[in-house]
């Protein structure tokens, strides 16, 4: 009875907070204390001990370090340089924005990748690229980068799995996410690339603008004409400042250290590395470091902390063991895994992807413990199913894509197509990932 009440409180608090647009972790943390004290008979210190300090260090360290890179202009320089190198090769623009968005999304906060959206949609408008193609390119790029070892979804997924004693390689998770999202991008090219090519042919050569970040900010959404090409060329040749060079070196050091430590058999603590490198950058330019403090993703820290603390209480009460027994009686673990993935996608299309990852990974533990499905494959599948639907117009990413569409007559079409795309992936994603990831993983387990 106590187990059912505790789980019911968890679901109710989650739903009410989501409907009221309140940080779910803020609601679940005191709920965890109340349930732990009142129903589980736990000491308050034991309840609070479930707060995931290791994930907190990762989130704060990573978002602070890359917040400095945003504040000192390094991220914008990377965007401008990439666009300048592409020039007028329209065919490469969606792929370029996929890479740009994935790179920025990998730098701690996935939604940081949304900085490319206004630029990307303006470029699409100028070059007569289908806004759906450009929007999906950035949406899939954001999803791919979010599962990097340095970014939020990757940190939460691997961190939650590690807390549960399940080994999953951060690079394997990132690799699977990158591959899945590249396949989705290829699908977007097939569905929406033809219109892009036909529209692009309507432009005369002299109308093909070189469109880069600084030019966008100076000239708005107008096409660059021959009169301002000279200035665009200057932008192309712009070089990073000394501070930006130091920041680029720090990013390189972070990547190299992470890879080297992993190859030597260690477990690189990316949060600690980011704190150390962030401290060095703060000493180089204190003003950028102060601005970066506002970029620390405290909302995600509270969200994940509250959910995982409550999950710890549920675990202490034996809720997950009970779910495991029920799963064993069902006798079809693959069906249970498929349903978990569908739930992850459906709820995430309307609510917090971060919350879904923190909440559903523990619910998968009984299936994994009973040997019904491979742990790494199921966790990868849940994470991806929760992320690939984020282009739904009912989520932050999808809403940003619609709002940033330059031609307002295209916005109803964008809303309709993004809804179709997101809702299709609620079903297609779980089925495909179960067939191509979970089933083969079980065969080799």
Automatic annotation (TrEMBL):
It is a multi-pass membrane protein. It is found in: Membrane. The chain crosses the membrane at residues 27-44, 51-72, 92-121, 133-156, 168-192, 245-264, 301-320, 332-351, 363-389, 418-439. InterPro entries: Cit_transptr-like_dom, MatC_N. Residues 5-146 form the Dicarboxylate carrier MatC N-terminal domain. Keywords: Membrane, Transmembrane, Transmembrane helix, Transport. Residues 283-436 form the Citrate transporter-like domain. This is SLC13 family permease. It comes from Saccharopolyspora oryzae.
